[in-house]
UniProtKB/TrEMBL annotation:
Gene Ontology molecular-function annotations: aminopeptidase activity
Protein name: Aminopeptidase N
Keyword Cytoplasm: yes
Upper lineage: Bacteria, Pseudomonadati, Acidobacteriota, Holophagae, Holophagales
EC number: 3.4.11.2
Organism: Geothrix rubra
Subcellular location: Cytoplasm
Length: 592
């Protein structure tokens, strides 16, 4: 017996699920889903089958046509949840499990109407990555197993369901309800199962792309993401034909804990991207790129997460270069450098979490999450590209996609393939240091541009009293302003903050990257005029990328610590479970 994924009860000697048929009844009153999951094996199988579950109440397990079969739930384990062991009789083709989800299911956030834009109807969304699919469906919750699926989702009349799948019709259902059907013919890992239910409207952006959002935001979403077809075309230039038919997007309510999630055929996005000037669409480029790097070629487990994210950041920045030029790309790398340095600092006492090839036995993947697989990973990919040249690397990427499409691979498989295709390249870039050693290698590629150097020099001279001129400020694009703010000293005075806000009009920014960078500086400076805006942002937005630094920066002064605790007490019931946990960790790290 062998359990190859430390985050799953999956046994590699057992049959793999090939297809999943789901019936989901969404009950907003009881905050639970009544589910029936039928696992198909595509073959006759028998014997033990171990599935992952967490917080699920199992009602019955049967082989259709043959009746109930024996099953048992193991003890609750802190990270993994409970193993559901089924004993399949001879000649089993499929098995049907009836179950209920728990109101605390980590994959699901149930929103009250007041937490939505329209304030009229409740909202439900899922977030299965990393290992939360098991709180939604009993399954082999490891990317080593890929399943196609079909689903029937019953929701209250007036609400719309969307999934990481193609729509396959909808119809009224008994009891004032409505049923939506879906089909995902391509095999996907369980972490890409996704569902959202709410008051939704959509706008077509191109023949193969539309955006969904609450009716109140759908017009601004359509404007913000109008360039998506252009991005798909550029991504196809890098990777080959788009493999998932449609590319639709869903803009969620603000408690969504991530910037974006690459659910196939239906990217989930935070509404904080709606800056009104298309300045944050690099997140769409990123999620779109995952259609290849992640969804088509998938990490075999969270120990190889960098294969998903490092490649995707690299691709995101290549798309940025093609669309907006290499100056913009250099700014992207500079922002990434800041995120990388912050993460290396956060994990300075846990160097084993700063290698790319992780060892996560006994470690919750959500606790290991950081910018390191993203930015260190992207730098390894960029180093390989520089080593062999763009043209050869381009061919390599195509071959990589062809060789591993619809499979899930390890770092070791990746390295073997690189060695075959680009002999000597791994050694030449010192890949071993990226993969197996902490920190960032000295030799990592650096991305520079004249403008980036100017911004850096200007910010570094802040302590000497050097300030940007009104002319300079007026000419800055959002990305330039952001990089400037990121390069400023972390500890400013209230007078510094007053200058910044007065000259850069920071308090009213619609670009959340800029707004949060500013509020983080203001919080660290104990700058009182920013407190109401800090409270507003922390009460509304659940994106962890913003909560972590902002709550972190509030830790520096007694007054700001009190503010943070007070805001958290009021806001945390509205946070996603993942966000709540992250903030709790930050608050616990405050000096007593
Ligand atoms: N797949 C990730 C989001 C994720 C990671 C969810 C780990 C759960 C566990 C997604 O593609 C992502 O990286 N989002 C970033 C976007 C950014 C890097 C452009 C985010 O949410 O900020
Ligand atoms: Zn990503």
């Amino acid at each position: 017996m062998h359990r190859p994924d430390p985050h799953s009860f999956y046994e590699s000697s057992q049959p793999k699920t090939r297809r999943l048929r789901l019936k989901l009844g969404v009950d907003f009153d009881r905050k639970r889903i009544e589910g029936e999951a039928t696992l198909e094996f595509g073959d006759s199988v028998q014997g033990d089958l171990d599935l992952d579950t967490k917080g699920l109440e199992i009602l019955s397990v049967k082989v259709p046509g043959a009746g109930p079969i024996p099953w048992s739930l193991g003890e609750e384990q802190p990270i993994l949840g409970r193993r559901l062991r089924l004993t399949l009789p001879a000649d089993t083709q499929e098995v049907a499990i009836s179950y209920l989800t728990s109101p605390e299911a980590m994959a699901l956030q149930w929103l009250e109407p007041a937490q939505t834009e329209g304030r009229q109807a409740p909202f439900l969304f899922s977030q299965c990555q990393q290992i939360h699919a098991r709180t939604l469906v009993p399954c082999q919750d490891t990317p080593m197993v890929r399943i196609s699926y079909q689903a029937e989702v019953t929701v209250p009349e007036g609400l719309t369901a969307v999934m990481s799948a193609g729509p396959a019709g909808d119809a009224p259902a008994p009891g004032g309800r409505h049923v939506f059907r879906f089909a995902m013919p391509q095999p996907i890992p369980s972490y890409l199962l996704a569902l959202a239910v709410g008051r939704l409207a959509s706008r077509d952006l191109s023949p193969r792309s539309r955006v969904w959002a609450e009716p109140e935001t759908v017009a601004s979403a359509a404007w913000e993401f109008a360039g998506v077809e252009d991005m798909i075309a550029k991504a196809e230039g890098l990777f080959g034909a788009y493999p998932w038919d449609r590319y639709d997007m869903l803009v969620l309510p603000p408690s969504f804990p991530y910037g974006g999630m690459e659910n196939p055929r239906m990217t989930f996005l935070t509404p904080t991207l709606l800056a009104g000037d298309r300045s944050l669409v690099d997140v769409v480029a990123h999620e779109l790129a995952h259609s290849w790097t992640g969804n088509l070629v998938t990490n075999a487990s969270m120990e190889h997460f960098w294969l998903n994210e490092g490649f995707t950041v690299w691709a995101e920045r290549r798309i940025l270069r093609i669309l907006h030029g290499s100056d913009e790309e250099a700014l992207g790398w500079a922002m990434g450098q800041k995120a990388l340095e912050d993460s290396l600092e956060r994990f300075k006492d846990e160097p084993h979490l700063t290698v790319l090839r992780l060892h996560l036995e006994g470690i919750d993947p959500d606790d290991a999450f950081s910018s390191i697989p993203y930015e260190k990973g992207a730098r390894l990919v960029a180093a390989l590209e520089r080593e062999v040249g763009e043209e050869r690397f381009h061919r390599f990427i195509r071959d990589y996609m062809d060789a591993f499409r619809f499979t899930s691979i390890t770092t070791e498989q990746f390295c073997t393939f690189v060695e075959e295709q680009l002999p000597g390249a791994l050694k030449a870039v010192g890949a071993d240091a990226y993969l197996h050693h902490p920190g960032l290698p000295e030799t990592a590629p650096v991305f520079r541009s004249a403008q980036l150097d100017r911004l850096t020099a200007l910010a570094e001279r802040w302590p000497e009293g050097v300030r940007p001129t009104g002319e300079q400020i007026a000419a800055w694009k959002p990305a330039e302003l952001l990089v400037y703010l990121q390069k400023l000293p972390r500890q400013l005075t209230p007078a510094d903050c007053a200058w910044l806000d007065g000259n850069l009009a920071l308090m009213g920014r619609g670009n959340y990257e800029i707004l949060v960078e500013w509020l983080t500086l203001a919080a660290a400076a104990d700058y009182e005029p920013a407190f109401p805006r800090i409270r507003e942002v922390l009460s509304k937005v659940g994106r962890m990328k913003y909560l972590r630094p902002l709550y972190g920066a509030l830790g520096g002064h007694a007054r700001t610590r009190a503010l943070a605790r007070e805001i958290f007490a009021a806001a945390s019931p509205g946070y996603h479970g993942l966000s709540r946990r992250v903030v709790q960790g930050v608050l616990e790290s405050y000096p007593a």
